[in-house]
Amino acid sequence: MPAGVNRFKLLVPAFLLAGVFLHADYPRIMELKNSDAVFRQLQEDIVRYNKAQSRGDPPPPLVLYTYTPTKDDETIFFLAARFTLSLESLASLNGLDRRAGALVNKPLLVPSVPGIFVREHPKNTLDTIFASWRDPRQAQKLTIRSEIFYFFPGDRFHPVERAFFLNALFAFPLDTLTVSSRYGTRVSPITGRLHFHNGIDFAAPRGSRVYAARDGTVTYRGYNSVLGNHIILSHKGGFETVYGHLDSIEVELNQTVNSGIFIGCVGSTGASTGPHLHFEIRERGTSLNPESLLPKYIKP
């Protein structure tokens, strides 16, 4: 365990640590102004932490505050700057991914110490990425809102995490990814001949839920003899994603979808030897290797 990590304490009532959560039990910030005594206290706590870090002193205790954004608060980027906290501190503690836009009337927890909070049970793709290369044995274990967190004080986004948060990467199209055939030249299981495989195949039971890998629009839904039932989504920047061999399609043509929305079910339609998802990423019509654009496959 790194020196200093176990010196952190979470200052909340004892019954909260037992799993009971009420927002009123955290110091509540009413306005993001120095005239608000609680906001001023948060700022003083953060300054105290920064001074301790610069001197190499033991860090002050972790204190959690709560704040409910108003219509003037805009986005998580604005709030992070106003609190003088790192973006990842607010995102990881509150389970916010890159699609966190309007936060009006959504109570947030605000930590007095910057860092990354890793959920024991991830709620979204970013949580999963956080947990993928961090060792919980090197963190402070906390119970917040009846959830177990592992707190890594002072930790920042890894470049992959930042890219995903800023929508530079694609989300997982399935809950579980088991690769059955990779991108590139291969022997076709249908014809037995060499050919170029434009996507990646994920083996999954028939009926498994398939999700949109990025915000976009349904530009094709239909059937052909190769991909069977399939969907094409169009995304900003000239990107497209393709989801093939589906058992069913759950979205309509021209429908706008968010990343992570349920769009269909795994099947074995078209030229297929068993249930799986054929997944492609294209940029302006040219296929790309999905493994380079899905966070699961990018190592720190």
Structure description:
18% of the residues lie in helices and 32% in strands. The protein has 300 residues and is α+β, with helices and mostly antiparallel strands. The protein folds into two domains: 5-165, no CATH class; 179-297, Distorted Sandwich (Glucose Permease (Domain IIA)), CATH 2.70.70. The strands form four sheets. Strands 8, 11, 12, 13, 14, 15, 16, 17, 18 and 19 form a ten-stranded antiparallel sheet that branches. Strands 1, 2, 3 and 4 form a four-stranded mixed sheet that branches. α3 (76-83) packs across α4 (87-94). The longest helix has 19 residues, at 37-55. It is elongated, with a radius of gyration of 23 Å.
Write the layout of secondary structure elements.
Blueprint: E1 10-11, H1 14-17, E2 28-29, H2 37-55, E3 62-67, H3 76-83, H4 87-94, E4 108-111, E5 115-119, H5 125-132, E6 140-144, E7 147-153, H6 159-165, E8 179-181, E9 184-187, E10 194-197, E11 200-203, E12 209-211, E13 216-224, E14 228-235, E15 239-249, E16 256-257, E17 262-266, E18 276-283, E19 286-288
Parallel strand pairs: 1-3, 2-3
Antiparallel strand pairs: 3-4, 5-7, 6-7, 8-11, 9-10, 11-18, 12-17, 13-14, 13-16, 14-15, 15-17, 15-18, 18-19
Helix pairs in contact: 3-4
